Amino acid sequence: KIHVYAWDQINSTYIPLWEYRFSGGTSNWGTVTAVSLDGETIAGGSLQFIGGGFEGYVAVFETQGGGTPLWVSAGMGDLVGDIEVSDDGLTVAACSWGYPNDAQPDIRVFQKYDSIPFYTYTHPGSPNDLDLSADGTRLIAGGKAVHNRFFGNGGNAYAFSLDLEGGSAAGTVTLEGT
Questions:
Q1: Element (H, E) at 37
Q2: What is the CA angle 39-42-48, rounded to 5?
Q3: Distance (Å, rounded) from C-alpha 175 to C-alpha 170?
C-alpha cells in the first residue's frame, strides 16, 4: 500500500489522508514512493506476482486527489526500484528491473498527466537507481549489467538530457570500459 499523511500542526501529529493498494496478481507490494518538493504530486511503484512471474507498475497521484491515481502505467517488467519526481511535480522518472529478455523499456520518463512515457530506454540488465534534477531536465540512471534475478556482475551508468517542452531527449551511451 501507499499511505499518505498530512501534518496536523495544532495537534503535532500526522493524520491519514488516503491510502492506495496496487491490485492484481496473487500478491502485490508497494516498493518505492516519491513526492514533489511542492508536495502536490506523489508517485509510487510496485512489484506484483502474476502467473509464476513478476510485473511492476507506476501510479501517479495528486496529494489532494483522495487516493485515486491520475494514471497507472503499463507493465514495467519486474520490481520498480526507483522513482523520482521533479520539484514542480510535472516530470516523473521511474526504473524497474525490467523483463529478463529486455522486451520493454525499463527506464521511463512521464509527464504528470500522461501514462504514455515521454522518453524510454531499455537498459541491458536491471537499472536499480536513478536521480532526476530539480527542474526535470537531467536524469542519471545506473544498474547491474544483467537482470537482477540472474547471477552476474558489472554495471552501467547513463546520463540523459530531457527537454519536455521541445519534445526531445538526447545523450550518448558508451558501454566500452564500463
A1: none
A2: 160
A3: 16
